[in-house]
Structure formats: C-alpha cells, structure tokens
Amino acid sequence: MNLFASFMLTSMFMLLLPIIMSNTQLYKNNLYPHYVKTTISYAFAISMIPAMMFVSSGQETIVSNWHWLSIQTLKLSLSFKLDYFSIIFIPVALFVTWSIMEFSMWYMHTDPYINRFFKYLLMFLITMMILVTANNLFQLFIGWEGVGVMSFLLIGWWYGRADANTAALQAILYNRIGDVGFITAMAWFLANMNAWDFQQIFITQHKNLNIPLLGLLLAATGKSAQFGLHPWLPSAMEGPTPVSALLHSSTMVVAGVFLLIRFHPLMEQNKTMQTLTLCLGAITTLFTAICALTQNDIKKIVAFSTSSQLGLMIVTIGINQPYLAFLHICTHAFFKAMLFMCSGSIIHSLNDEQDIRKMGGLYKPMPFTTSSLIIGSLALTGMPFLTGFYSKDLIIETANTSYTNAWALSVTLIATSLTAAYSTRIMFFALLGQPRFNSLSPINENNPHLINSIKRLLVGSIFAGYLISHNIPPTTIPQMTMPHYLKLTALAMTITGFILALELNLAAKNLKFKYPSNLFKFSNLLGYFPTVMHRLPSTMSLTMSQKSASMLLDMIWLESVLPKSISHFQMKMSTIVSNQKGLVKLYFLSFMITLTLSLLLLSFHE
Amino acid sequence: MSMVYVNMFLAFIMSLMGLLMYRSHLMSSLLCLEGMMLSLFIMMTVTILNNHFTLASMTPIILLVFAACEAALGLSLLVMVSNTYGTDYVQNLNLLQC
Asked: Coiled coil located at which positions (chain B) (predicted)?
C-alpha cells in the first residue's frame, strides 16, 4: 500500500492553500506572489513522486472520495482518475505554471493588483487540475466551465480597454457554443447509458455513438479554437502575456483535445467521427497557418501558431493516435510557453511595443531572449532531437504511413512548412537586421526572475521530449519501417519553409509595399471570418426578430388591421359619400317642423 | 291624464324644442338632450311606482346608463370640434371642408 493517491491528493490540495489564505493578512502584503510561486514549485515536486511511481510500475489509481448525491439511479461522487494522461500532464502543467508565475513576478511587477492576478492564475490552475483528473463527466464539466470563467477574468484583466472586454466576451461566447455540444453528450450518456462515469461509458456496448461524439467534437472545437469557432484565440491576446502563456498556449486550449483523448475508446470504433476529426484538424491547421503569415503583432503570430498546433493534435486524434496527441500536448506546452515569455520579454523591454515592424536588431541587446526565441522556434518546427521532434515528427510519420484521407495529409504537410515560414518571419523581423524601435527604451533582461524562468523552460524545450518519450510506458507502437522519402518528409517540408521564408524576407526587405494583393488581404484579415461572422448573423437575427415582433405583430396585427383600417375607411367614405353642407340648425328646425306638422294633422284627423 | 304626467310631458317637449332650435353653441343642444333624458327618467319612475310594475323597476337604471354613454359620446364630438376650431359655434361646421 504505497502513498500514490496520498501524494497526488496532497499535491492538489496544496494548490488550494493560497486561495484559502486570501482572506487573511498574507494576501495584503507584497510577498503573496512569492508564496504562490513557492507553493506551485512544491506541488510540482510532490507530484513528480507519483509520476515516477507510474513510470516504474505502471500503476494507475481511481480515487473515489465523497458521495455527493444520487439522482434516482445516477450516483454522483467526487472521483479522481489518476491514469496515464493525468499523471504525466500534471507535473508538466505544474512545471510550466511555476515558470510562468516566476515570469509574471517580473512582468506584472508594477501592477497594483498583482495579488489578485496571482490568485486568478492559481484558481485557473486548480480548475484545470479538476478537469484533468475528473473521472466523471460532471466533475469534468465543473473544470471545463471553471477554466472558461477564469479565462474571461484574465483576458479582461485590463478592463479599462474596450478591446479587452470584447475579447473576453468573445471567448465566453465561443466557448458557450462548444458547451452546447458538451451538454448534448452528457444528456445522451445519461439517457442511454445511465452514467457519467468513464468506466461505465467505456464498458457499455452501444451501436451508434455518433450523437455524443459529435457533441464532444463540438465541445473540442469551441474550447480548442478549431475552424469555425476559432476567432477568440487571437483576440485573447488582449490579456497580459503570462495569461497568454498559461491559458492560451499550454493549458486551457488543450482541454478540448484532452477531452477527445479521454474518449478515445469510443472514438476508435467510429470511422465517421475519425474522418470528421481529421478533416476539421487539417483545415484548422492550414487556415490558421495561412493567417499567421501576414500578422504584424508578435503575440498574434504565436497565438495562430498555437491554433495550428492544436489542429495538428486534432489531426493526430483523427488518425487514431491519442497517445501521440497527448505527447504533443506535453511537449508543446514547454516551447510555446517559452515563446510567449520571450515575446513578453521583448514587449516589456521595448516599452510595450508589440508590432514586429517596429522591432529589429535585438540579437545584440538581448542575447538570452534571442537564443531562447530561436531555440523555441526550432523546437516548434520540429528540428531533429529537440523537444518538438519527438512528438511532431512521429505524428507526421504516422500520418504518412497510415491509410487515411490524402487531402488532410497534404494539407497538414503544407501547414508544417508554413510553421517554419512564420517562425522565420518572427525571428527575421524581431531579432535580425537594424533596429526599428525608439532608441530611448531601456532594454534590460537582467532580472533573475525572468532569466530563471526562461532558463527552466529552455532546458525543458531541449530535453523534455527525450526524457518524456523515453520514460513513458509503451502504448501504441509507432511505425518502424517506411521508405526513406517518407521518413524525411517532415524535415524536408520544414527546411523548405525556412529557406523560402528567409529568401522572401531578404529579397523584399527594402522594397516599397504598394497595394496589398487579394491573397494578402485574405490572410491578414483572418480569412474575413470575424468580419463576416461577427456582423452578419447578429444583424440578420436582430432585424428579423424586430421586424416580426414589433412590426408584424404589434403594429400590423394589433393596430392596423382592425382599428386603424376601420377608422380610416369610415372617414374616407364619409367624406366621399356625404354631400351635406353642415347646416345643422336648419336640419334640426326641419325635425321640429315635421313634429309640429304631424301633431297638428294627426290630432285633427278623425 | 293626471296633471303630473302632463307636467313632465311638457318638460320633455320644452327640452326637445331647445334641442332643435338653438342659435350658436353646440353645448346648448347637448344640455337639452340631458334635460330630455331627465324628464323621461322621472316619468318612467313615477309610472312604475304608481302602477306597481315591480318587474320593470330596472328600466330607469338602464335608461340612466345609456344616457350617460350618449352624453359621453356627445361631449367627445364637442371636444373634437372645439379642438379644431377653438370654440363650439355651430357655424364652424359649415366653414372649412376638412
């Protein structure tokens, strides 16, 4: 009887302590961020112990604590599923969060509400942990909604800015549409399998699982910003850089992918769902890679890069490789968070300048940031034997050698080369060449918080892929033999992307930019998707409801049809038909004469 | 017939004369209309009470209700004329074709 479950639950409970302490004096002094950061580092250390236990013995645990309620035949209790996915994800997430907390101690140093910022980040982390360790759909939904709400609060951190409020609202609305799918799946499972526990769902045989799986796919589309529900992710860059690094690169947006990975026993049998997932992921990764090519905001480029990698993860689920998708989640967290932190370092040093057309020549003043940005970009594009290679290259190889949709496959390969292209664009514009920024900003990266946090993630970006992929228990066997041209496809596409982008940037560096071409406008305006979809459906539905409710019902049926039409008709008719001249006194006198005359005549009649 | 009935019948005839022969104000004809209603009401009540027509005792009340309605209608017409012309002179109705 080892302490597996105890260590894990201790690690989870430790995260709650700073929230509980927020009512006391500790919250009010300026050591609170340091306290939160240390708590998370200790929680990471403690959660490594169950991870080691799992690595060495393959032990998985389900902890069922507290029976909450029973609704007729449905039993809801607090249960934690500590299996392959959660045990490996939790240390990775805690490590990345530790680095981000330390980074935000430098980045948000001058913010008067820094304690509240750390509390929000911690609450987000707790709800993410709830999501990842949930054993039943209800607990997962609690975590799901929790990360959505904390994302709203954190994106709108600088709430005085109208764009930030719009972006936060956009995130909530798009996530809500995905939640409809989630609740459909929950309702279907409740009605047909009478359970919200994963174990019962996976055991029960059922013929046609299309409806709940479609609902879960919709939920993943909303939360992980797949094509159709994707505009909230680039808009979410209105939040502070630590928020972008934590939520919108490593943790929250992988919740949708994580949900699909959790349900992989159900998705294995359903070919239709796999094809749908594959095509959705393929179109997402290509579309967002195209959009990333012409953006000018460094955070937006990295956000689109995240969206593209999420599409790649969905493609991996579509070719029936959930474990590879999970490996990509874990490795992607390292270098993407580091990319965001490097861009945060650049932004802060250039006095809040986010436009890459106004950066340049930073490789001399900021050597550490430069090298970590380059290493992060190389890891992102899948350079051999860095972190991204172990997951991304495996994905491309498996996709190449599997019996799947050729269009989705070729689109994924094109997106891989575009990844290299926009990474080169960031490096070229931000780091190389002559400086284009104001010369008076003090460029300083000497703060130990900044250096240590980026250094930690740098080491992770280089070695984590090797360490993780050599220590996890073997699951699905990767394809070992393939022709040499297939094996080198990913590398060839990446090198093509690099060389093309570098040549284009160098050749067009000093040319004048006259009129944007149609393709440029398509890419820069995000494929016209937000322009059309944010304005047209809402205007149409509001106009239609106003016309039908107010004009049709109120003004026509209730007012015009009977009352007003009758009065109008009568007035018209009376003016047309009557030929009286309004001589009222004469008419009344005629009554009287008639009366008198009749009285006289009739009284003297025998 | 008895003197009471003749008296009330005469009051009715007086009001009718006043309704049919008026000089300028529309309001005077409305007042005479009210007078007609009043004399009718008294006549009806006295007849019913004297002859013990018990079941017909509700007719004066109904007559009162209808009299009130028509008074309201007449007043609204007066107000309409007065709104357009400022006064209720009858010669206004011949003045402009509206």
From this structure: none
